[in-house]
Design brief:
Elements lengths: L1 E8 L3 E3 L9 H11 L3 E5 H6 L9 E5 L10 E3 L2 H7 L6 E3 L3 H7 L5 E7 L7 E2 L8 E9 L9 E8 L1
The structure holds NADP nicotinamide-adenine-dinucleotide phosphate.
């Protein structure tokens, strides 16, 4: 199974200047516990946004058009190749960014979306979702985080 995992602002933004727009402890924890022990697939820019360091306890796969290697991660030249490299993992996570999500939306079986209920100005947005293809199967709303003062909701969508 291929799953997308992403946090999206109310106005669709997911990042700015190759970094995240918010810091929500609860969401970081959700991301870590959900993806730990699995393969995580990301675009070259997202890998760089993580400080060019692999996420621990996960098989990191970086997608690039270039002939290059990344310390602590496997290199793939397409999403298909990355998914093939992760074969054997029962849940493979596509962790961004926008370019890779756009590809993954065509093939993913599930999406874990954290809705951040606030607008953020940013240069990167999640691609348009065709909701006729997806069914909301789980949601958990938080009025605020321990430190984050706005509401957010953890949602799971499965492909219909
Ligand atoms: N809110 C969230 O949950 C979340 C999650 C992840 C990332 N983000 C944010 O998203 C932003 C980064 O997203 P992005 O869209 O700019 O970049 P990205 O998708 O992370 O990476 C883009 C790079 O991936 C490679 N690539 C893309 N399509 C490819 C293809 N078909 N074949 C081979 N390689 C391909 C290219 O690398 P080369 O140029 O090396 O060829 C391209 O420059 C950052 O702001 C980050 O913080 C947010």
């Amino acid at each position: 199974m291929v799953s997308i995992i992403v946090a999206i602002a109310q106005n669709g933004t997911i990042g700015d200047k190759n970094s995240l727009l918010w810091h929500i402890k609860e969401d970081m924890r959700f991301f870590r516990t959900t993806t730990s022990g699995h393969a995580v697939i990301m675009g070259r820019k997202t890998f760089e946004s993580l400080g060019s360091k692999p996420l621990p306890k996960r098989t990191n796969i970086v997608i690039t058009r270039a002939e290059r290697e990344f310390e602590g991660a496997l290199t793939a030249h397409s999403l298909d190749e990355a998914i093939r490299m992760a074969a054997g993992d029962e849940e493979i996570f596509v962790i961004g960014g926008a370019q890779i999500y756009a590809e993954a939306l065509k093939v993913a079986d599930r999406m874990y979306i954290t809705r951040v209920e606030r607008d953020y100005a940013g240069d990167t947005s999640f691609p348009e979702i065709d909701y006729t293809q997806w069914q909301l199967t789980h949601s958990e709303r938080h009025e605020r985080g321990e430190e984050f003062e706005y509401p957010f909701e953890f949602q799971t969508y499965d492909r219909v």
